[in-house]
Structure formats: C-alpha cells, structure tokens
TrEMBL record, chain A:
Keywords: DNA replication, DNA-binding, Nucleus
A GO cellular component entry from the record: PCNA complex
Family annotation (SUPFAM superfamilies): DNA clamp
Main location: nucleus
Function: This protein is an auxiliary protein of DNA polymerase delta and is involved in the control of eukaryotic DNA replication by increasing the polymerase's processivity during elongation of the leading strand.
UniProt-recorded name of the protein: DNA sliding clamp PCNA
Single GO term (MF): DNA polymerase processivity factor activity
PANTHER family given in the database record: PROLIFERATING CELL NUCLEAR ANTIGEN
Segments forming domain Proliferating cell nuclear antigen PCNA C-terminal: 127-254
Species in which this protein is naturally found: Cucurbita argyrosperma subsp. sororia
CDD domains linked to this entry: PCNA
Family: Belongs to the PCNA family.
Subcellular location: Nucleus
Gene Ontology BP annotations: leading strand elongation; mismatch repair; regulation of DNA replication; translesion synthesis
UniProtKB/TrEMBL annotation, chain B:
Principal localisation: nucleus
Record protein name field: DNA ligase
Family: Belongs to the ATP-dependent DNA ligase family.
Pfam family, one: DNA_ligase_A_M
InterPro entries according to UniProt: ATP-dep_DNA_ligase, DNA_ligase_ATP-dep, DNA_ligase_ATP-dep_C, DNA_ligase_ATP-dep_cent, DNA_ligase_ATP-dep_CS, DNA_ligase_ATP-dep_N, DNA_ligase_N_sf, NA-bd_OB-fold
Gene Ontology BP, a term: cell division
Catalysed transformations (reactions): ATP + (deoxyribonucleotide)n-3'-hydroxyl + 5'-phospho-(deoxyribonucleotide)m = (deoxyribonucleotide)n+m + AMP + diphosphate
GO molecular function terms noted in the UniProt entry: ATP binding; DNA binding; DNA ligase (ATP) activity
Composition-biased stretches (Basic residues): 60-74
Length: 264, 804
C-alpha cells in the first residue's frame, strides 16, 4: 500500500514539467525514505535524478518498496487536471498495475480521482556517487535560464569555464559568437540573488545547449541553481526543492571537435 | 571509418574512497588501439585510471595542431590501462569498488541518492522485481559478479563472433551451429550477428553461397533461441509486418538525419553534407564519430530489441509521432556498434540492398528447417529433402505470406507438415496470379495446343481480392496486398448483397472497373484513379464501380486454388447473382476457333476493355498465387503491332535538354529492375512520347530527386554519360517497337548474352504509373523473356514466309 499526500500539489506539477521533455518513460521508486526517480534520455547523454523525501509530504505511507513505471507525458496530462492549490495524493496498491492521483481542492468541495495505467520499463539504474567537484557555481536560476536561452539563439554548444574571474558561458555560431561572464556577487539584499563561486581548480567544459535548455524547465522549482563542474565528470545542474529534495540533471560533456569534423 | 562514442559509466560506488574516482569513463573502440599505443604506455604510470583517461584527453586536445589525426580525441577510452577493448561497461578499474558496494548496501539510505533508497531486503513479489533491478542497477549482491562475467563475455563475444563469422559460408552439412553460436541457448540473439551476416551477404554474388549463409544463420538461431527466429526472418526480409497489415516504418530522410545528428552530437548541416558526399545515410551513420560523450553505453542491441523498436516506430501515429519515431531511432543508434549503424539505418529506410531476394530467404528457411528437423522425417519418396523443403516453404508462403504464422508452424510442426499446419485463410490476401503477354491469337493457339482453354475480357481497372469472412466482415485487397477496404465501401455493400444467402465465406478475384450506370458503359482506368484513396463515405462517391468477377479462390471454408479453373468457375457462377452495373461475371467464351477469338478480341476492345486473358480450363489449371504463369496469357489490343506488353521502367538519369528543350531534361535514361541482384539496369534512353507540358512536369518532379552520384545498385554502360542522376522514385509505362541486344545497356545482362544487355528500340512514354514503386518495375527477367519471345516469333514468321 502506498499513499503519499502532498499539500503543495503544484510542486509535483512543476517537477513533471521539468523532466517530461527529457525523458519519456521512467520508473518512480518509492521507499520508506522517499519518492524518487532516475532516468536517462534516449541518447544516454543526460540523466535526471529526482528525490522527494518522505518528510516533505504531509502524509507518507509506503509499506513496501515499489517501482512504478510511468509514461511521463501521460502523467503530466493527468496532473494538469489538478488545480494549482490542490492537494495531490498518490495512491497505489501493492502489486497493482495502476496508480491513482487524487486531487482535493483547498476548500475540500471537489475531489477528483485519476487512475493511470503503469507500464513495465526495464530501466538501467546507475549508481551516482558523491563527488568532489573542481568548481561549484550557485546562481539565480532565472539568470541561468536566461543565459542558456540567449546563447542557444547563437550556437548549439556552450562552453562553461570557471576561473577566478568568474564563470563564463560562451558559444559560437554561424552568425557570430557570444560570451557571458558572471562574477561572484554576494552583496545582495536577498540571499537567493547571490552568485557564489567556489573553485579549487579552473575548469572548462563544452555541453550541448539543447540539454541545458531542457534543464532550465526546472527553474520554477527553485530560485537558485547549483552547477557543479569537474573536468573529468558530467556536470550536475541541481535545483533544490525546499524542504523536500532536489531535481538533479547530469550531462555528459561534448568532446571538442576538430574543424574538419565532417570529413570522414 | 568506424563509429566511435565515448561514454561515461556511472558505477555503484557508495563509500568514499580516495583511490577511486567516482565516475568511470570508459569506452571501447578496439580498432583505434594500435594508433594510441603510445598514449597508453605513456599514461599507464599515472596514479588512477581515470586521471589517465582525462589527462590523456586533454593532452590530445593540446597536441591538436601537431597531431593531424582527426581521431585522436575519440581515443580516450582506449587509454584504459588494462587494455580491454570494446567494453561497454566500465569494469576495468572497478573491482574493489564493487566489493565495497556489496559490503555497504546496508548503509546506503542516508545519502539521499535516489537509487540508494531501496536496498533493503526483498520480501514479497513486488520487491523481488525491485531487487532484480537492483542487481542490474547498482550492482547488488549478485550483480557485480554476474555483470562482470557478462561484460567480459560481451567483448569476447564480439571478437569471437567476428572471427567465426566466415564459417557461415561453409556448406550447410559441415556447419555446426551450436559450436558457432557464442551466446547461450535461450539468450537473445545479438543484432551484431545479423549485421555481420548482412556484411557477408553483400559481398557475395552467388545465390547458392548466399542461400548457404542465410541457411546457416537461420539454423544458428533455430538451435539457440528459436523465439528470435520470427524477428530474424523479418529483418532478413527487411519487413516489419505482412503487407496486408499496411504497417510501414514511415521514416523520411529528414527524420533519420535529425536522429543521426542528435545521437552523435553533430549538427544537421554536418550530417547533410556528409550525406551528399557518401550518398547513403547508412554509410553516414557508419562514418559518424560522436562528439558527444555518454553517461553510460547502453546494452548491446539484440535482434528482438531492434525488431520490437521497428514495430513501435511503425505504430507511432498522431501528434508528435515523428518526434517519437526519432527518439526510438536515437536510442537504437546510441547502442549500435561496429557495422550496426549502417544496417540499422538501411533497414529503417527499407533499402537493405545486399542482394538478398525474398525467394532466396524462403529457400534458405526451408533448408534450415530440414536440417533442424526434429519432428518428422521426410516422406520416403522425397529424393532431395533440401530442395523439397525449400519448395514447400515457398509454396506455403505464397498462400500465407505471414511470417508470424509460418515460422512458428515451421518450428513446432516441422517442414513436412507445413502444408497441413499452414493454409490459405480468409483475411490474409495472397499474391494474385498473373498472365504472360502474347502477341497474337496464333501464338495462343500454339501455346495451348491440345488444351481446352477459355477467353475472358481483360477489364481495365484495379485488380482486387475480396475476402468475405464467416462473421460477415469484408476486406478488399489490392494487387500488392494493400488493404483497400476503405477506398471501396460501395463494393463492400455490393458483395454482401449479391452473394447467395447460403454462402458463408469466400475469396473473390476480380477487377474493379469505373462504370457509368446511366449509359451502361465501362469507363477508362484514368477515371477510376480519380477516386479518393482513404475513408471514402458511400454518400460522397462520384465514380461508380462495377465488380467484374473472374475467379473464386475460397468458398465456405474450402480453399479452391488447387482445383481446376472449370471447377472454380462453376462455384463462382453458383455462388453469386449478377446485378448489372454492380456485379458481373467477366464475359467469357470457350472456343479454340481462331476467328472466333479474333472477333471476341475486337468485341472486347469495343467494350473499352484492354484485350483478352486466355486461361487453361481443365489441365494445368490450378490457381498459382503471385506467379506469372504460362497457364494465363494476356492479349492486349495494342500488342499486336509492336513488341507486346508495355514496360514499366524507372528513370535513373537524364541529359540536359538543348534547343527547344533548354531548361528541361532532353532525354532520360530508363532502367528495369533486377530482382536477384536488387539493382536497376539501364535499358534505353527516352526522349519521345512527351508533350511539352508533360516534359516540364516530369523534369520538375525529378529535379528534386537529383543525387550527386549514381547509386551503387545502378548498372549502366560506361559510355552513357548522363548529366544528372536520380533517386529511383518514379515508374513510367513505356512502349517500344522492338527489343535488341545492346553493348551499352545492361538490362538482363547475363541472361541472353554473357556481357551484353537488352535495349528498346523507339521507346515512347505512355504514362506515369503512380501505383507502382520502382522495385515493382518490369523485371530484367521479363525483358529477357520478351526478347526471347520476339526472337521466336520472328523466326516463326520467317518460317511462314518461307513456306509461302
């Protein structure tokens, strides 16, 4: 038996919106400690890891560990039927092949039940270790989204380099090139507007902007984003979900190309 | 060039351990190893594998201006200190980590890592599943060992597969499938096995050798994982479903280009440019080197995985279906290694072109079944069981062209019972029987000497096979087994009405003809082709259709195709009631009088028919599905003064027009199709029969099909130097005065002359055949037959003259 009651239903909606374009089908794993998901995109370039800890739910009951395969687009369709202030409850019986989403309006005068078929997904689950990163950048998430969006109108890839000067996002395309440098800035009124750069070693890595832009769909979840880089690791773009957990996106870097790339 | 991809491998590591970096960068391409041997040795003294990898990469990057090898950067992975090529899992440097993982499973939960949350003891069923997942996911208790074994065997297997693949060429009796297979019984057959087989077939031209290879491949699958045989056969046939299901992959070049660019992290422009250079997206895929590293290399492809994905792709429909299809392709591409991308793309385009004809596949399937026979021994009177087995499979396939039924029946009941276990069933169309062209009434009398025969009008409409099932449902299939039920709802109503009430089920062979009920007149084919193609509503129908029935293949649960035409026709006349303008029997006479036939022919032409079909009645008069049989002959009104039938040919190249024709193409190079070699063979240049408008229209439509170089499967003389080449897309109906042997053209080369082909004299365009695909063009075999028939006729005429 599984019953998870989330007062802040809109949160779940936002979570789904942030990952459904990257991943089509995924297994949601429920255990006594939390509700989580890990999945790779179809080209195995990006990985998304979601965690909603049990403490964040108003009511959390999970008798047995469960893994529920869902089509994220269908799930998103159902969640769109919930109002932004609705309380969402996720219910499933042990061994059942369906999951039920229950939406309660804040005034309790309307209760809707949506039942969705589960699917069998053989996913590859990867162990994600804690790593020490060469550089960690924390910045306002809206700022990051803006940069990615702007750069993608110029080129397809972004080079993220962290030096003691700051963090530089640059791209190059047919029409020209662009560089955006963000400097450390902690003297702001609100802590979430700060840009904080911790750096042990300078790094510079190239990524496909397409993925970065897809990650920024998680911007509504958090005011800040943390980007962790090491020259030998996939980048981690993390959006913290207040008091509950996080959505983390991992992205494998591009290998720098020779100019004569098209020639075999 | 080989395709390379780098990938990150995330592995289960849970305890902090200074020596081991947490993410392991691994990769495979064995073929580049020698090039980078220097790197390997230079780097191997580094403290950790991972450092070596990445710094190797950086070193390579820095060296860029010096080192001109364009491949260097991709070789990161080959720097793996324990040089184990082709590993898709990063096991090389991880064993100690794995053991940690095992010991640490109980301390996982506090890390907040999603995958670590659920490593408790499994209790019930639901969790058993979870635990199994865990094994694969993050190396649970059994995981690491099993995984390791599997991984090393993956590389070994690839190597072994590659080294042993030439064995497939062995004569079947010397071939030991059990020894050959490097996967376990019941394990999914690797896709690479199929691709290596394709590779081998494409280098063979002898049909016997190809049959042996395919037969050995099929036997290997049968003896190890018979469950995979259906998928294997479908992929070998480059099909995804029987024709009548109408399931198509529906993937355009654009989708493939997109998928390629996204899967390999390249821009579409780069892919397109390379496509222009190589002319084959399969080769582009093969040559694509990825600039995008991966989180983890996906598991190796299996035949079933590929085939299932293909069916999924075909079934995607509606909104975003192109996007979904592209994603399926992408996930196949990223998992493909070695020559797999090449064949993956060609299969997706349904342009395999390795010279494997379906008849060869069927023969190989029959032979393989004979070798694998466990269920029964061949009947005592069979002289050569192999040939007999091949014949049975071909015959059964002609009446039941559905591998999903045929293959399991073959596996379960054996080849000798196949004709009993698989039979003709309503709802599954069979290939219609076809007629051979003849040139005159006298020729018919010659061919049918001493046989009783009948003449029928040859109506100018659309051939249709109407299936009426026991439950009252009706399906109409075209000549190509496409489901046309939606196009003729009026015919569905008609057949249900005109059948006698006692009739429960039937399959009718007939011609659907446009008909003017007011004037009681047959209308030309061109009118019929103006009808809408899909989801026609009865109320919207403007072109009325009359059914002209001429054969009955199945009646009340009994197949009739083995019966003589006289019997079938009797059943036909007994089972239906004619209704003028809706359903009529084909007008027929039974006579052997030359003059009477001539008159009947003239009458048929007066009735706006194409001519006559002449059929044997009693002897050699069974229905032979999909065969162009000598027992049916066609005599068209316009055969008589020229070479007989028109030809359906494919324009493959053109010459720029001059003078009046400046700006359009002045002449086109036409080709017929060779089924055995899967190639287009040039047959003539054509420049007449075009109206100005027509020429402009054809030039415009072909201009978008221009390709920079002739396809590898075009055969043409070296002296033809066309200005542009085309994709094979259109089919033109062409008439000609005469067939001659030509040193320039290549149609039917090797059939009538060892190195000369056949050419057409005075060809002229009749119309564009929109209903045929290039592969359905006139076959080189048919061209050769026509040439031989013409030669014979000329001789006959000369003889006649001499006697005179």
């Amino acid at each position: 038996m599984l019953e998870l009651r989330l007062v802040q239903g809109s949160l779940l909606k936002k979570v789904l919106e942030s990952i459904k374009d990257l991943v089509n089908d995924a297994n949601f794993d429920c255990s006594a400690t939390g509700f989580s998901l890990q999945a790779m995109d179809s080209s195995h370039v990006a990985l998304v890891a979601l965690l909603l800890r049990a403490e964040g739910f108003e009511h959390y009951r999970c008798d047995r560990n469960m893994s529920m395969g869902m089509n994220l687009n269908n799930m998103s369709k159902m969640l769109k039927c919930a109002g932004n202030d609705d309380i969402i409850t996720i219910k499933a019986d042990d061994g059942s092949d369906t999951v039920t989403f229950m939406f309660e309006s804040p005034t309790q005068d309307k209760i809707s039940d949506f039942e969705m078929k589960l699917m069998d997904i053989d996913s590859e689950h990867l162990g994600i270790p804690d790593a020490e990163y060469h550089a960690i950048v924390r910045m306002p998430s809206a700022e990051f989204a803006r940069i990615c969006k702007d750069l993608s109108s110029i080129g397809d890839t972004v080079v993220i380099s962290v030096t003691k000067e700051g963090v530089k996002f640059s791209t190059r395309g047919d029409i020209g090139s662009a560089n955006v440098v963000c400097r450390q800035n902690t003297t702001v009124d609100k802590p979430e507007e700060a840009t904080v750069i911790e750096m042990n070693e300078p790094v510079s890595l190239t990524f496909a902007l397409r993925y970065m832009n897809s990650f920024t769909k998680a911007t509504p979840l958090s005011n800040t984003v943390t980007i962790s880089l090491s020259s030998d690791l996939p980048v981690v773009v993390e959006y913290k979900i207040a008091e509950m957990g996080y959505v983390r996106f991992y992205l494998a870097p591009k290998i720098e190309e020779d100019e004569d790339e098209t020639k075999p | 060039m080989l395709s390379l991809r780098s990938c990150y491998c995330l592995r289960p590591i849970t305890l902090a351990h200074p020596q081991f970096k947490k993410l392991i960068f691994s990769n495979k391409p064995p073929s580049f190893k020698p090039i980078f041997q220097n790197f390997v040795s230079a780097m191997s003294s580094r403290p950790s594998a991972f450092d070596a990898l990445m710094s190797g990469a950086r070193a390579a990057a820095k060296k860029k201006p010096v080192n001109s090898s364009p491949k260097k950067r991709k070789a990161l992975d080959s720097l793996d200190p324990p040089p184990k090529p082709n590993s898709s899992l990063a096991l090389d440097s991880t064993p100690p980590v794995e053991s940690q993982c095992v010991s640490s499973t109980s301390t996982l939960d506090n890390h907040g890592d999603p995958n670590l949350v659920k490593s408790e003891e499994a209790v019930d069923l639901g969790e058993t599943k979870l635990r199994q997942d865990d094994g694969g996911k993050f190396g649970g208790k059994i995981g690491p060992v099993a995984n390791k074994k599997c991984a090393s065997s993956v590389q070994e297997r690839t190597a072994k597969l590659k080294s042993s693949i030439p064995e497939l060429k062995k004569k079947a009796k010397d071939f030991n499938s059990k020894q050959f297979a490097c996967w376990n019984e019941g394990e999914r057959v690797p896709f690479l096995f199929l691709c290596l087989g394709f590779d081998m077939i494409s280098e063979e031209s002898s049909r016997i050798t190809i049959t042996d290879i395919v037969c050995n491949m099929l036997r290997t699958v049968m003896d190890t994982t018979p469950d995979d045989l259906v998928a294997t056969v479908y992929l070998l046939a480059n099909k995804i479903a029987p024709a009548h299901e109408g399931l198509e992959l529906g993937i355009g070049d654009a989708s493939i280009i997109k998928a390629l660019s996204e899967a390999f992290g390249r821009t579409e422009a780069q892919v397109k440019k390379q496509y222009k250079e190589l002319g084959d997206l399969g080769l582009v895929a093969k040559a694509s080197r990825s600039s995008q590293s991966m989180m983890r290399k996906p598991d190796a492809l299996t035949i079933t995985k590929v085939f299932d994905s293909f069916r999924l792709i075909a079934k995607e429909s509606g909104k975003d279906s192109q996007e979904k299809k592209k994603n399926h392709i992408k996930s196949l591409l990223v998992a493909a290694t070695d020559c797999e991308p090449l064949y993956l793309i060609r299969l997706l385009q349904t342009k395999l072109r390795i010279g494997l004809a379906e008849q060869t596949l069927l023969a190989a399937l029959g032979q393989a079944a004979v070798y694998a026979e466990k269920h029964s021994t061949p009947p005592a009177n069979v002289q050569s069981p192999l040939e007999e087995g091949a014949k049975i499979v071909k015959q059964v396939y002609s009446v039941l062209p559905v591998y999903d039924k045929l293959v399991p029946a073959l596996l379960n009941g054996g080849v000798w019972n196949l004709s009993k276990t698989c039979n003709f069933t309503p709802g599954i169309p069979i290939g219609p029987m076809l007629a051979k062209p003849t040139k005159g009434v006298s020729e018919i009398l010659n061919k049918f000497q001493g046989l009783e025969f009948t003449c029928e009008y040859k109506y100018d409409g659309e051939r249709a096979q109407i299936h009426y099932m026991e439950d009252g449902s009706v399906e109409i299939y075209s000549r190509n087994a496409e489901r046309n039920t939606g196009k003729f709802p009026d015919v569905v109503l008609t057949v249900s009405r005109i059948k006698k009430p006692s009739v429960r089920s039937f399959i009718l062979d007939c011609e659907l003809v446009a008909y003017d009920r007011g004037k009681q007149k047959i209308l030309p084919f061109q009118i019929l082709s103006t009808r809408a193609r899909k989801n026609v509503a009865v109320s919207d129908i403007k072109v009325e259709v009359c059914v002209f029935a001429f054969d009955l293949l199945y009646l009340d649960g009994q197949p009739l195709i083995q019966k003589e035409l006289s019997v079938r026709r009797e059943h036909l006349y007994d089972s239906f009631i004619e209704e003028a303008g809706y359903f009529q029997f084909a007008t027929a006479i039974t006579t052997s009088d030359l003059e009477e036939i001539q008159k009947f022919l003239d009458a048929s032409v007066d009735q706006s028919c194409e001519g006559l079909i002449i059929k044997t009645l009693n002897r050699d008069a069974t229905y032979e599905p999909s065969k162009r049989s000598l027992n049916w002959l066609k005599l068209k009104k316009d055969y008589i003064d020229n070479i007989g039938d028109s030809l359906d040919l494919v324009p493959i190249a053109a010459f720029h027009g001059r003078g009046k024709r400046t700006g359009v193409y002045g002449a086109f190079l036409l080709a017929c199709y060779d089924n055995d070699n899967e190639e287009f063979q040039s047959i003539c240049k054509i420049g007449t029969g075009f109206s100005e408008a027509m020429l402009e229209e054809r030039s415009a439509s072909l201009r978008s099909k221009v390709i920079p170089e002739p396809k590898s499967y075009y055969r043409y003389g070296d002296t033809i130097n066309p200005d542009v080449w085309f994709e094979p897309t259109e089919v033109w109906e062409v008439k000609a005065a005469d067939l001659t042997i030509s040193p320039v053209h290549r149609a039917g080369v090797g059939i009538v002359d060892s190195n000369k082909g056949i050419s057409l004299r005075f060809p002229r365009l009749v119309r564009v055949r929109k209903d045929k695909t290039p592969e359905e063009a006139t076959l080189s075999e048919q061209v050769a037959d026509m040439y031989n028939a013409q030669k014979l006729n000329h001789q006959n005429n000369q003889d006649d003259n001499d006697e005179d």
